[in-house]
Amino acid sequence: MRKTLRTLLRALLFLAILAFLGFALLVWKVDRLGRVDAAREADVIVVLGARVNQDGTPGSDLTSRTYHAVDLWSAGVAPYMICTGGFQNEPLSAAAVCKRFAGDLGVPAERILIADGSSNTMEDAEVAAKVMDRQGWRSAVLVSHPLHLFRARWLFQRAGVDAMTSPTSTETHRIVLPVRLWYATREAAGIIFTLIDGWSIVPAEWVAMLQTRIYRTQ
Q1: DSSP secondary structure string, 30-54?
Q2: pLDDT above 70 for 187
Q3: Residues above pLDDT 70, as percent of the chain
Q4: Residue 194 CA, distance from chain mean position
Q5: Cα–Cα–Cα angle for 157, 66, 118, rounded to 5 degrees
Q6: Quick one: pLDDT at residue 214?
Q7: Cα separations (Å) of 77 from 6, 44, 142, 187?
Q8: Other Cβ atoms within 10 Å of 77 Cβ, number
């Protein structure tokens, strides 16, 4: 009996170590992708939504994302932009504010499409993919915070988009290490939660609770 118990404990320890190493590898991949600008010619540039200030101006993340997307557009990476995020038909949604800001930076309004009616990255991907499908587009350059892009690319690819990434900055070493590790870990956890969300053995309310706690700072 004791031998069987020891064997079981060793097996569980081995599986725990494998799970830890697998998760650590995922965290490393999240961090590594954020250090590489993989932008190439595509059908459209997609700006992932971020916070809007109470006065209707873009928050710091949305500002940097929009600036970077406009730079890519000006460089001829893609002829169109899609701004995502926020309540549908809301003038102060992230998508609407992004479009106005990009317009102020010189992008013609007819070159900017809106994919609103979304409140997280998964919904951004689904709504943007529908907009792209209506236009007959397949490829997109995703613009966001460097440590957000691994999960964003994964979700857009799941939605059927040929997605590549272009971070607002590749200098992730400038982020304080504990903060950098926290964000990379959080993004890796987001991928895991998305994968297990459909498993009937995991109560949906548990997944929702964990996601809320992990993403409470967004």
Answers
A1: HHHHTT-----S-SEEEEPP--B-T
A2: yes
A3: 89
A4: 13
A5: 50
A6: 47
A7: 59, 8, 12, 27
A8: 18
Q: How far apart are CA 5 and CA 109, in angstroms?
A: 67
Pull the structure tokens for residue 28: 């490393």
Whether the CB-CB separation of 68 and 143 falls below 8 Å is answered with: yes
pLDDT at residue 76 is higher than 90: yes
The CATH class for the domain spanning 44-171 reads alpha beta
pLDDT in tens, 193-209: 778 765 544 555 555 55
Residue-averaged pLDDT of the chain: 88
Average pLDDT over residues 67-79: 98
Identify the bridge partners of residue 162 per DSSP, sorted by sequence position: 139
pLDDT of residue 190: 85
pTM across the whole model: 0.85
**Residue type for position 194:** T
DSSP 140-205: EEEEE-TTTHHHHHHHHHHTT-EEEEEES-S-GGGS-HHHHHHHHHHHHHHHHHHHHTT-TTS-HH
Cβ atoms within 10 Å of 126's Cβ, excluding its own = 18
